[in-house]
Amino acid sequence: MEIINKIRQFREDERQLEWRGTFKEYLELVKEYPHIAQTSHSRVYNMIKDAGITERDNQKMYHFFGHDIFGLEDSIEKLVEEYFHSAARRLDVKKRILLLMGPVSGGKSTIVTMLKRGLEQYSKTDAGAVYAIEGCPMHEDPLHLIPPHLRDDFYEEYGIKIEGHLSPLNLMRLEKEYDGNIEDVMVERIFFSEDRRVGIGTFSPSDPKSQDIADLTGSIDFSTIAEYGSESDPRAYRFDGELNKANRGMMEFQEMLKCDEKFLWHLLSLSEEGNFKAGRFALISADELIVAHTNEAEYQSFISNKKNEALHSRIIVMNVPYNVKVSEEERIYEKMIQDSDMASVHIAPHALKTAAIFSILTRLKEPKNQSIDLVKKMRLYDGEEIEGFKEQDVEELKKEYQDEGMDGIDPRYVINRISSAIIRKDVASINALDVLRSLKEGLDQHPSISNEDKERYMDFISAARKQYDEAAKKEVQKAFVYSYEESAKTLMDNYLDNVEAYCNKNKLKDPLTGEEMSPDEKLMRSIEEQIGISENAKRAFREEILIRISAYARKGKRFDYNSHERLREAIQQKLFADLKDVVKITTSTKTPDESQLKKINEVIARLIDEHGYNSVSANELLRYVGSLLNR
Ligand SMILES: Nc1ncnc2c1ncn2[C@@H]1O[C@H](COP(=O)(O)OP(=O)(O)O)[C@@H](O)[C@H]1O
Ligand SMILES: [Mg+2]
């Protein structure tokens, strides 16, 4: 009965939050907590801000989006700063409709949904509390009760600017129910809820012929006209359109550009003037964030239409491109798989990464700088250190194209292909090759891929495969080394001792006998040769490493096995080279002898315990690497 208790507790908590009082009492609250009177845009911005912001390398990370949106830091920062932050400060952008533009399945709806769910939660906190005239279908801002001629005085006393007029309905209620006594009007705390249609709305266009503007702005309630005597009596009107219901919060406008123009004009007057027209009433003030989304093709055809010219300047377009970082793409897949019915399937290490490599390659544009190929660019974007490139170069690459990531393969396609790979295989375990195969087969069925793109995409499948082959080989070789990290570290320490002695023209001490020895040239060369360092270049390489070590020491950082990309590579290669024949023979033999069998079992156990495989995927990996090594 745990759950019943939780339900009770929840109800109790909700009750604690309720508040109801007269307008006079509300003003006392406002005096103490002025933020409860903030505009919708400001509330949205504060919600995002309150969730926390971390700044790293000149990049702001908004925790609010960080849980569910990956790899879009640049776009999110622009969106928050240039739209939400500016709108919160009542700058001009507040008067424009926010239009998220980006390729299909690039996270637009996810962003909007996060804002909606976020507001629902935020309105339950002290910082995000919202109050409204009690019983008002539009949850009207109580401050609208302050008559226009007193608003300057109000500003002087409270420091709050009031926007908007009292709605016709509340004007009438004020007179009929409260005898004009503003201070007695009842105010209540409200809680945003899309389900209950409080402060959160969604509008999606249906058949343009049948769709009624009433969906947005409400309509006459014919059954009550007789009672109130006239169509222009606001009590005979149902303020139940999406614009009404979303007042004080936000409204999502799906497929905005597919919509009939007359709908757009309503929105524009709302965002520009803060009011809209409904029925036979004076303009109705509303305060809400309007977010729409669309893809690029639709947007292009919209702006190329002369008729829409006046609308352009009233829309602010924010790009939501695809993520272009491999590791973030992996996180997207992981999240989508967790949320699906595939959550229990074993997905072998590298499977998602390999798929991500393919996807990212389809999204990137060819570097203009000839010395960088697409794969290298992809690795640089992902934050990998590549010899000869600096952070500066990555920035330069990003600047080459303004519209990178606006096309290519979408995450949903990948997830669907993984899902069909799982269905096809009768064991609940899939690996990188299964995924690549499925991605490849799916290209024929993909609705929006041209033949030209298909050819490029086939190349990317091969490129992803190549990356995987390397990773697979390394993984198996690592698993062959008993305690890989330790072996690597020992070898490296040994190398560094020798390098130090060599550069400083010192001798080394034999740890056992204490005898003095010259640096072990053979050992050093055997490592350096792994990465093609020539006899002539060895001194420079060794000196560079010593410089790196002392640079680390100055910063108080420890120089370790991962601190120097190429050295790490060399050490790894050296360890593998010593093992090469063992790995090759053991993995490819069809009839292993007893000692080979023992080794195989050891390696499989290590793959399972330390590298995240299960017995199916570990065996598959071993067989595959065996075939690779024997090519
Ligand atoms: N950058 C991203 N970060 C996290 N999830 C993403 C990202 N891009 C796409 N997705 C996921 O892909 C799916 C489709 O995204 P969605 O928001 O519906 O896209 P859109 O509305 O742009 O078509 C969702 O499950 C979403 O979580
Ligand atoms: Mg969508």
TrEMBL record:
<dbReference type="GO" id="GO:0004672">
    <property type="term" value="F:protein kinase activity"/>
</dbReference>
<protein>
    <submittedName>
        <fullName>PrkA family serine protein kinase</fullName>
    </submittedName>
</protein>
<feature type="domain" description="PrkA AAA">
    <location>
        <begin position="21"/>
        <end position="371"/>
    </location>
</feature>
<dbReference type="InterPro" id="IPR013153">
    <property type="entry name" value="Prk_AAA"/>
</dbReference>
<keyword id="KW-0418">Kinase</keyword>
<dbReference type="InterPro" id="IPR027417">
    <property type="entry name" value="P-loop_NTPase"/>
</dbReference>
<dbReference type="Pfam" id="PF08298">
    <property type="entry name" value="AAA_PrkA"/>
</dbReference>
<dbReference type="InterPro" id="IPR016230">
    <property type="entry name" value="PrkA/YeaG"/>
</dbReference>
<keyword id="KW-0808">Transferase</keyword>
<dbReference type="Pfam" id="PF06798">
    <property type="entry name" value="PrkA"/>
</dbReference>
<dbReference type="InterPro" id="IPR010650">
    <property type="entry name" value="PrkA_C"/>
</dbReference>
